Each structure stands twice: as C-alpha cells, then as structure tokens.
Amino acid sequence: MWPGMGRDRLTRGLVLRLCLLLTSLCVCVHIYLELGSRRGAPSHLILGCPTQTSQVLPDKGARTRGTKDPLEPNFGTEDRAIKRMVSYVRTLKNDSVAGKTGGGANPSTCCPPLRPKRKSPRWHIELEPWASDSHSLEEEARRFLHYITTPQVSCAPPSPEGPLVLQGQEGPKGPWAVCLDRRYSLAQRIHTKHCRVYSLGLGVEDKTLERSLARVGCEVHCFDPSLKQAHLQESDMWLHRLSVDWRDPNPAIPAQRQHGNTKKLATILNDFGHRQVDVLKVDMESAEWKILENLVLEGVLSSVGQLLLEVHLHWAGFEVGGDDPSVVRYWFSLLKELERAHFRLFRYHNDPAKPRLFLHRNFLNASSTYTLGWINNEWRP
C-alpha cells in the first residue's frame, strides 16, 4: 500500500508541473502576439532601426528592404508598416546634426539623434525696463522721443550715376524717402529691376514715393480697401482691395465676415507667393502699433529690407491699453524689437504743420506724427 501511494503523489506532482509549464508558455505566446498586433511592424523594426535581415532576404531571392511576397498573409499591413518606419528613419537621418554638417552617423549606434526642439512661438513682446523707478510719463516720453529722433546709421546720398533720387512730394526734406546708400542692397536691386515694394495705407496718403519707385522699375503693390475692383494695375503699380491688419478675420464669426478683405501681412505674402520685400511702407493711421507687433511676433521682418513707418502719438492707438506711462513704454519696447531684428534708424521726419499733441496733451513740444526710416543691415536678398 505505501509504494502505491508514493507513485500516485509523484504522478500528481509531474502533472501539476506540466500544467504550470504549459500555462506559462500560453501566457508568453499571448503577450507576444498581443504586442505584435498593436505595433503592426515586424520585430526587427520595432525600434525603428532596419537590420541586415530587413535589408536583404537571401532565402526569398535577394528581395530588397520593405518588400514581401503578396501570397504571404498580412502583406498589405506589414508592407505599409515597413514603409512608414523606413521613411521615419530617413527623415531623422536628414534632419540630424551630423547630416547637416556633412558627417555620417556614429557606426556604433543604430539611429541618428532626434532633431532638437523647435523654439516655442512668441505670444507677446518683451517689455523694456522702465525709464525710471518712478514710472513717470515724463521720463518715458523723454526716452522714447530721444530714441526716434536719433539716427543709428548714416545714409549717404546716391552717386550721380546711380538711380533716380527718390523722395516724397516735399523734396529732399519730405516725409518719405528710402536709403540708396550703396552699402545696402536697394540701389543695386533697383538697377537690376528686382526690387519689390509694399505700401500699406488707407487710400488717402501720398503716393509720390511709390510712383517714383515704379518708374525706375520696381514692382509696387499698394493695398487700399476702398477700391471697387479686387486687383487693378494703374501707373505701373498694382492696387489691391486689401487692408493689412494684425489678425486674419474668422469666417465663422458673422461680425468678421464683412472684413474679408482684411488680412495679416504674412497671409498676403503667402497668398502672393512673395518671400521678400525690399521696401515696406506703413501708413495705417494709428493701427501701425498692433501691425508692427504682429510683424515682430510672426518673424515677418526678416523678409523686409527697409521699413518706412509713420507713427501717431496723439493717442495710444487701436487696441493699445494701459495708463500713459505704460503706453509709451510699450511703444519704446516695440521699436527696440526692431533693433533686435537688425533694423537701424537712418532717418526721421516730423511735419511742423501737424498738431503738437502727445497722448492728448502738449508735452515736450512733441509732434503728433513722426515718419521713421529703418534699414535691415543684415538683409541679404
């Protein structure tokens, strides 16, 4: 009786161990199949690194990477997965630092390093420190007025054999003038008939400068929302029924549908297929501050060679809020952003016939309107 009981116990132990082994094997197979179905790619491409097996399959007739017999199961799924993964690897290789510098990837590693993170978009400008601890309007105004009336670079007059001297209707001392100094590119661009001019206005400003630039061969685009036709060519200039704003209208909002002819400058450049503008003239009757802010935040200024800007100081401007010292600090900070974008002031003009108003008051004998000429000293068209 005792020997029989020992054999039964031994048999039950072996059966129990066999059952545990089979259960473990089934669990492993299930996990493997589950992971394979979720990833949808062969095991040798799971990490995004094609191996020698994926490149050449000698037992299938030396097939190239990414091909599979159409008679095999899941042909379409695996083929698409391989194409997606191989494309991903090639993208990384092209965008890697080694690829850009001309060197290859490290042979000891499978895949090149990931591309660096892009800079996050800017949502606001950086305000400059206050002019004084007291945050007074007088100190802010003195700093601002001194800044816009102190040219940072000189602009030599063009040589006699150069292009036509381009001025506004008041002659050499008029409000609008471009820099034709041969140290910069505009004179050469005019000579080769490759210059492009954008004039942003509301249809009432002087167009003498634009006509002069058009006569010497520049491609001139004037934007006027009051035109009856969408696009019109007149006196060697293109007139467009568009107004430049600091935002694009939302067609889903009924109140903004009527402003369908209003767009951001970046949108207009993209629609026209223009990458560079030699001269950008802005006379937007107090909308210039928010438009300039948009140009700074969206990086449009890098496509501009010269910026001719009329600023209005008799009030804060459209959608510019805060008390008077904060408004002037904001104006100053915007112009300092121009300087960070490699623009330098080469000219300023104020019309003595304009009212002497600064934020609704006669302050420091400041004019209500100044015309500023800025040149991008690192612009290479």
UniProtKB/TrEMBL annotation:
Q: Where is the composition biased (Basic and acidic residues)?
A: 60-75
Superkingdom of the organism of origin: Eukaryota
Q: Enumerate the spans annotated as Methyltransferase domain.
A: 168-313
Residue ranges for the region (Disordered) are: 56-75, 96-115
Question: Entry's InterPro entries?
Answer: Methyltranfer_dom (IPR025714), METTL24 (IPR026913)
Q: Name one Pfam family in it.
A: Methyltransf_22
Q: What is this protein called?
A: Methyltransferase like 24
Q: Which organism is it from?
A: Salmo trutta
Give me the gene this protein comes from: METTL24
